[in-house]
Amino acid sequence: MTEAEAHWLWRLDADAWMRSALTELEAGADHVAVRRTALTHARRAAGMALNAVLVAWARAQGTPEALAAAESRWGRSYVDHLRLLGDSGPENQVPLGTRAAESARALMAIPVAITAGSAGAEVLVQIHRGPNQAAQQGLDHARTIVHACATAIADLRTAAL
Predict the structure, then answer these.
(1) By CB atoms within 10 Å of each CB, which of 5, 33, 58, 131 scores lowest?
(2) CA geometry: angle 86, 73, 95, nearest 5 deg
(3) Sign of CA dihedral 110, 45, 55, 158
């Protein structure tokens, strides 16, 4: 599929994807006491920021091949994006760096729900309604990814001048 065929990636430009990512980060921060909700927003925020990088990268390349490559480079979903970025080598991290990849890996490693441990293992459950530590860590990792994406987009735009 190409841009002319209205692939989902092209429904927003890079700036709009970044605004959406920031909105998701805010929503996650608003729900930091609820682990599942905050982590879902954190992952969505990071994925939307990665969409912004894909759009900016393809536009900077300016070729039909780059547009087509952007549509499949890191998979379809935000979970695909994060897993591929976190598990890939440097060639798939461009124009992002290892810090973004490490944050993607760490964000995906945080379970959205607490599950019972193996036989005899204790599971700690947070019972107060303050910030959930795992949710806060997830949001911090997402912020690192969003910041790396904003920097990469600025660098792509500067290089295109």
Answers:
(1) 5
(2) 65
(3) negative
Q: What is the pTM of this model?
A: 0.86
Q: Angle at the Cα of 95 (from 101 to 13), degrees rounded to 5? A: 105
C-alpha dist (Å) from residue 86 to 7, 18, 93, 99: 24, 20, 8, 10
What domain range includes position 112? 3-160
pLDDT reported for residue 37? 96
Residues 6+ apart with CB under 8 A from 94: none
Torsion of CA 75, 56, 12, 78, to 10 degrees: 30
For 2, list phi and psi in degrees, rounded to 5.
-120, 175
pLDDT for residue 1: 44
- Please tell me the total count of domains within the chain: 1
CATH number of the domain that residue 104 is part of: 1.20.120.330
Residues 72-81 pLDDT 10s: 888 889 899 8
